[in-house]
Design goal:
alpha/beta, Rossmann fold, eight-stranded mixed sheet, 16 helices, PG_1098_Fer
């Protein structure tokens, strides 16, 4: 951590050049107030990446940024705020503290938070930033979280985000491939805390996670603006039925959908050909796998067991996108001929043999416009194109 970065002149230079081409800065300035311009440029790039993702950091003076990879890997403020409301108590240990976004939001609801980060420089950066953010109930420990856990007193909650990189820095996502392996240490964690919250890859198979960890009480799938960002496992004791919660955080609201894991296999979806309206679940629900539950909960018909689109004759509220069906075309020579008369549309492929790119290439349809085309398989196993307009 180069404290010269925090000098008034350099901070002014960073703020002034947030939108300046980095290459031109490197050519024009070999050094800025005695600091290598490459170091200053890294601060500019990292701060710029924080503008939307971490507005509290971006809008606070004298924040020190790590490299942009740390910014890319850290939680966003929206997901950190969501996590902070899942657990409660007086004390929390964040065993994989990183840049400290999660610790900062946990500190809003816990009396004392311990931020463990094995990277000494990143620990110092987080400690400095907590002071700038005026969050004074966080203790930073530059130690391995698991070593800290072995020697610490019992706390109310433990949070950890196991590393999803192997020894060769290759990305992994299976629970057993991450470090630490939560399947091996969950009993140890529960000896030290009443509740444990674990952030895992959104690629993790939900049913396998439940089979591997009998203590999972809740699984939260968190999307932001319809992009799944995190999967969270809340562990507090053995349970016979895990609650699945899918949430899509939007600009001024949130779509929520929940069900017990065993409910999905106990329910049956209703099926039909496309009717008047078409419904596309948000990405968090798609990840949750609660497809039969969606049909039952909202009284909608599914188009096909593997086509995760729904339909109805009467319009209903829905956690996802809703469309008015304008036309249904078979995907054959006659239907393709009619589709080629369209010049612009938004295309989605669901349970269909061709990808969106191949469909665009074949049909010569540009992206955009007011029409939404869904290429899919219907309840008669026929390949169709559903032409719709968004409601």
């Amino acid at each position: 951590m180069n404290k010269d970065i925090l000098n008034t002149g350099i901070q002014h230079f960073i703020n002034k050049n947030l939108n300046t081409d980095i290459s031109s800065l490197l050519l024009k300035y070999p050094k800025i107030e005695g600091v290598d311009t490459k170091i200053v440029a890294e601060q500019i790039q990292a701060k710029l990446k924080s503008k939307k993702k971490l507005p509290s950091w971006f809008n606070t003076s004298n924040i020190y940024y790590p490299n942009k990879l740390n910014i890319e890997q850290t939680s966003s403020e929206k997901t950190a705020l969501y996590k902070s409301h899942l657990i409660q108590g007086n004390t929390l240990s964040d065993l994989t503290g990183g840049f400290g976004v999660d610790s900062y939001y946990f500190a809003k609801v816990f009396k004392k938070v311990t931020h463990c980060e094995i990277n000494t420089e990143l620990s110092r950066i987080a400690q400095h930033n907590f002071k700038m953010l005026k969050q004074h109930n966080i203790s930073c420990q530059a130690v391995d979280g698991m070593e800290f856990l072995a020697n610490c007193n019992k706390v109310d909650c433990i949070y950890l985000d196991p590393s999803r990189r192997d020894q060769t820095k290759k990305k992994v996502f299976l629970l057993q491939d991450c470090t630490p392996d939560i399947t091996e240490i969950h009993e140890q964690l529960l000896e030290k805390a009443k509740m444990v919250l674990v952030k895992v890859s959104p690629l993790v198979d939900i049913s396998k996670a439940i089979a591997d960890l009998p203590h999972i009480n809740e699984i939260h799938i968190v999307a932001v603006d319809n992009q799944v960002k995190e999967m969270l496992l809340l562990i507090s004791g053995k349970t016979s039925n895990t609650l699945i919660k899918a949430i899509n955080i939007k600009e001024d609201s949130a779509e929520k959908f929940s069900f017990q894991h065993t409910e999905e296999s106990q329910k049956q979806a209703n099926y039909s050909l496309p009717l008047t309206y078409l419904y596309e679940p948000n990405s968090a629900i798609l990840k949750s796998g609660g497809f039969n539950m969606v049909s039952q909960r909202y009284n909608l018909n599914k188009l096909h067991p593997s086509t995760h689109l729904y339909t109805s004759d009467s319009l209903t509220d829905f956690p996802g996108r809703r469309f008015l069906i304008k036309q249904i075309l078979p995907y054959n020579k006659q239907g393709i001929k009619k589709l080629k008369t369209l010049t612009k549309a938004n295309i989605t492929s669901r349970n269909f043999p061709l990808t969106v790119d191949k469909l665009r290439s074949q049909l010569k349809i540009k992206d955009g416009g007011s029409l939404y085309l869904f290429f899919c398989t219907d309840s008669n196993n026929a390949k169709i194109a559903v032409i719709t307009e968004k409601i």
